[in-house]
Design brief:
The complex is a heterodimer of chains A (583) and B (195).
Chain A: E1 2-6, H1 7-17, E2 22-25, H2 33-38, E3 45-48, H3 52-64, E4 69-74, H4 75-91, E5 97-103, H5 117-123, E6 127-128, H6 133-150, E7 154-159, H7 160-164, E8 165-170, H8 186-189, H9 193-216, E9 221-223, E10 226-234, H10 236-244, E11 248-253, E12 255-257, H11 261-270, E13 273-277, H12 283-290, H13 309-316, H14 324-327, H15 347-356, E14 360-362, H16 387-398, E15 406-411, H17 412-428, E16 434-439, H18 468-474, E17 479-483, H19 488-500, E18 505-510, E19 525-527, E20 545-548, E21 551-554, H20 564-568, E22 574-576
Parallel strand pairs in A: 2-3, 2-4, 4-5, 5-7, 6-7, 10-11, 10-13, 14-15, 15-16, 16-18, 17-18
Antiparallel strand pairs in A: 1-8, 6-12, 9-11, 19-22, 20-21
Chain B: E1 5-12, H1 17-30, E2 34-38, E3 49-57, E4 70-75, H2 78-84, E5 88-97, H3 104-107, H4 117-122, E6 127-131, H5 133-140, H6 146-157, H7 162-172, H8 178-189
Parallel strand pairs in B: 1-4, 4-5, 5-6
Antiparallel strand pairs in B: 1-3, 2-3
Helix pairs in contact in B: 1-6, 1-7, 5-6, 5-8, 6-8
The chains are: A alpha/beta (583), B alpha/beta (195).
The complex binds thiamine diphosphate.
């Protein structure tokens, strides 16, 4: 039967069909829905790990124990997991291990657009690249087979458009769950120098075998057309090429590391002009150049952002386009519509207060990164998950006075991911900074996933909830406060007090996200005639407050009744329509 | 139907473009066509500008609709109509819900919400259909069904049989909302073909 499935749904299905029994990951757009979908299939133990490094270690351990394991993460997650990844290439596996790297060309939801195909070459592992949901599904099983046949982890690299495009998929019946016996083999799995040296030789030999495999793998295929133009491509770029240049010859690579050198030579010899079409970096092209094959490639296309069928057409077969584009250019001055903190978001009051106090804010990644946008405008840095605390400590080391006018701000999930070690560093290395942990009881940014503090696991089972206060106390922070972000006065006082303290402090700002708060939405607020149009409430950056004709109005369909605006209005011009005001 | 049909559904995060796209894809599947549908998740959903691409025909390669290629753009919000209009083919059809949702730069006063959107679109070489979908939906019982009202308006612009749309809605809408959505769809379908 043909089903319309996103690439992520298809990968989940592929794992089920391929006999996977262990799946681990950390949320991150565009990878998150893989594990969210995998839980519908019986026989798979799936989990959110606190971060990608742990997730990969769980997957590797499962594979060494003999199960087939799937590990999922977004592209930057592979940076976090890189340490186990590189050495997993030495140890190899027993049951198959497939790592999904979900790259984000165009940075729809990411802080960079690194091309993780390079990880395949760097870590010396095979990399598969699907071009639609059918292949995304099928390549999981293929990846498992390659993994077991060659005794290596395999990377399945997808991009946002593969992950989030729905295309037709023919599903199959699952095979029996795969489980090999565990076998102790210290020379293979204990990577100390003497054993690792031997494993490096194995790894290099394996790469040669993989290169031979790539030359004959059915996942690389040639679509013959007009031979005066030949294109080598992979992933979604293949679809763009077929759309833009339906008549040319195409070598579509399903395995992009190692490259099928022989096949590429054969293809190149039979076509006139050879083009390499790839999104982001010239990963294939650089290697084809080294083969000494003349080809055209990246200089024709940008290495920034997403590729498109039109860009390919314009570069390879330019034709005078009709003047339709110009004709329909009706929108020179369309205001941008950036994402915003939701109405009722517990982060809003925090950034409103930080803005009022004019503090330096060492920021982090999550919904709260939106606190950097006007009018809240209260974030100075955002680099990677966990940066905020280490970064703030570094600022204090550079200029001790900054510790009195700076906070580190980090979400609950991000704190468990990689903030804990930063805080340990603050305590250990005599830092005195103030850290705000924004505990909204969920991993919100990526669509509300459970985390070690929420009391539930990915499968929906109850799970131990970490005691955040006890945790930060245990690593040596003695000043720990818990505040409600809707109590603006208290929040402000606590931040001021903790900033003044000459020792590390943690303020746990606790209120559930509107999507998990059982009390939300509350009745909307209304503006009365006392409104002077002073716009104080507009500084909250709430999308349900609209300023028009010298007064503020509330959009009742958007307002969540958090009542924050009631608290900042000095004229008593905003009322709750609910029974009790306040939070 | 041997040609490729390309559509964009554009709006603001939370307006229900995704359900609409699911219905639309189902309509294509019911006709035995190949379909690709591409949507945005993550950051952009937090009240940002969202776009869903739907393409169907005998065979679809790229899942994305590019500038100047869309047969139809369905805008769930006026400003988004203006933003995405250039994705239309000349003579393409633009369905616009007259609702205005102010983006944050307008709310903070650093940008101005254009007041002449419909007039500007009206001057283009396109077929323009406008409506107050939220109002029509609330007459049917819930403003939130505005997305399906827009599908009704779109359906009227295509030559796909009404019954196919209704079956698709039946298959994609949870049963407890089915009556509301069938009504909302018909309310849209009943609007005059072109304004
Ligand atoms: C290494 C890495 N993994 C995953 C992500 C994706 N990501 C960004 S923020 C975030 C979690 C945010 O959760 P939390 O800290 O609880 O803040 P909230 O969004 O709930 O405010 C995730 C998973 C990322 N940017 N980098």
């Amino acid at each position: 039967m043909n089903n319309l499935m996103s690439g992520n749904e298809a990968i989940a299905r592929g794992a089920y069909e391929a006999g996977v029994t262990v799946a681990a990951g950390y949320p991150g757009t565009p990878s998150t829905e893989i594990l969210e979908n995998i839980i519908q299939y019986p026989g798979i133990k799936a989990q959110w790990s606190p971060n990608e490094k742990v997730a990969l270690e769980v997957g590797l351990g499962a594979a060494i124990a003999g199960a087939r394991a799937l590990v999922t993460m977004k592209h930057v997650g592979v940076n976090v997991a890189a340490d186990p990844l590189f050495t997993a290439a030495y140890t190899g596996i027993r049951g198959g291990l497939v790592l999904i790297s979900a790259d984000d060309p165009g940075m729809h939801s990411s802080q960079n657009e690194q091309d993780n195909r390079y990880y395949g070459k760097f870590a010396k592992i095979p990399v598969l690249e699907p071009s639609d949901s059918q292949e995304a599904k099928d390549f999981v099983a293929l990846g498992m087979n390659i993994s077991e046949e060659f005794d290596t982890p395999v990377m399945l690299r997808i991009t946002t458009r593969i992950a989030h495009s729905q295309t037709l998929v023919q599903v199959s019946e699952p095979i029996q769950p795969v489980k090999f016996d565990y076998q102790k083999d210290a020379q293979k799995y204990v990577m100390m120098p003497a054993y690792a040296r031997a494993r490096h030789l194995v790894l290099e030999e394996r790469l040669k075998d993989l290169a031979d495999y790539a030359d004959t793998s059915p996942c690389n295929k040639i679509v013959w057309g007009d031979k005066s133009v030949g294109v080598i491509t992979s992933g979604l770029a293949y679809q763009y090429v077929r759309e833009a240049l339906p008549h040319v010859s195409v070598l579509k690579l399903g395995i992009v590391n190692p490259l099928p050198a022989k096949l590429i030579h054969e293809f190149a010899a039979q076509v006139g002009t050879l083009y390499i079409v790839e999104e982001l970096e010239p990963f294939i092209e650089e290697q084809v150049q080294v083969y000494g094959i003349a080809c055209q490639g990246k200089y024709l296309f940008s290495r920034i952002g997403e590729l498109s069928a039109q860009a390919i057409k314009a570069a390879i077969e330019p034709e005078p386009t009709a003047d339709t584009l110009k004709a329909l250019c009706v929108s020179p001055d369309v205001p941008a519509r950036p994402p915003v903190l939701c109405p009722g978001c517990p982060h809003r009051g925090v950034f409103y207060t930080l803005n009022q106090l004019k503090l330096v804010v060492s920021g982090d990644i999550g919904c709260y990164t939106l606190g950097s946008l006007p009018p809240l405008h209260a974030m100075d840095t955002c680099v990677c998950m966990g940066y905020s605390i280490g970064g703030a400590l570094g600022m204090e080391k550079a200029d001790a006075s900054m510790a009195r006018r700076m906070v580190a701000v980090i979400g609950d999930s991000t704190f468990f991911h990689s903030g804990l070690t930063g805080l340990l560093d603050v305590v250990y290395n005599h830092g005195t900074i103030t850290t705000l942990i924004l505990d909204n009881r969920i991993t919100a940014m990526t669509g509300q996933q459970e985390n070690p503090a929420t009391g539930k696991d990915l499968m929906g089972n109850p799970a131990p909830a970490v005691d955040l206060e006890a945790l930060v106390r245990a690593i040596g922070v003695q000043r720990v406060q818990v505040v409600n972000p809707f109590d603006l006065a208290d929040l402000k006082t606590v931040i001021q007090t903790e900033l003044a303290a000459l020792e590390p402090s943690v303020i746990i700002v606790r209120h559930p996200c509107v999507f998990v708060d059982p009390a939300s939405p509350k009745p909307p607020v209304v503006v009365n005639e006392a409104c002077t149009g002073c716009k104080s409430c507009m500084k909250l950056g709430c999308p349900s407050l609209i300023y028009s004709d010298g007064k503020v109005e509330v959009d009742p369909t958007l307002c969540n009744g958090c009542n924050l605006c009631i608290k900042v209005c000095r004229f008593g011009a905003i009322n709750s329509t609910g029974k009790e005001a306040g939070n | 139907m041997d040609k490729l049909t390309s559509l964009l559904l554009v709006g603001v995060g939370g307006q229900g473009t995704i359900l609409a796209a699911r219905i639309l894809s189902q309509v294509a599947l019911l006709q035995g066509l190949d379909v690709k549908m591409s949507e945005v998740h993550g950051m952009a959903q937090r009240g940002g500008s969202v776009v869903t691409h739907v393409k169907f025909g005998p065979h679809v390669y790229s899942p994305l609709v590019e500038r100047g290629e869309a047969d139809y753009v369905v805008a769930f919000e006026k400003l988004e109509a203006l933003r995405w209009a250039e994705y239309l083919k000349p003579d393409g059809t633009l369905v616009v819900n007259e609702q205005a949702i102010y983006p944050m730069p307008v709310i903070t006063g650093s940008a101005v919400y254009p007041q002449d959107i419909l007039a500007r679109l009206g001057q283009q070489q396109i077929r323009l259909v406008t409506c107050d979908a939220a109002n029509l939906a609330s007459v049917c019982g819930n403003r939130k069904a505005a997305n399906v009202v827009l599908m009704g308006i779109l359906a009227k612009q295509t030559d796909i049989p009404l019954a196919t749309w209704q079956t698709a809605i039946e298959q994609k809408v949870p049963s407890r909302f089915l009556d509301l959505n069938q009504q909302a769809f018909l309310a849209g379908y009943a609007l005059p073909a072109c304004v």
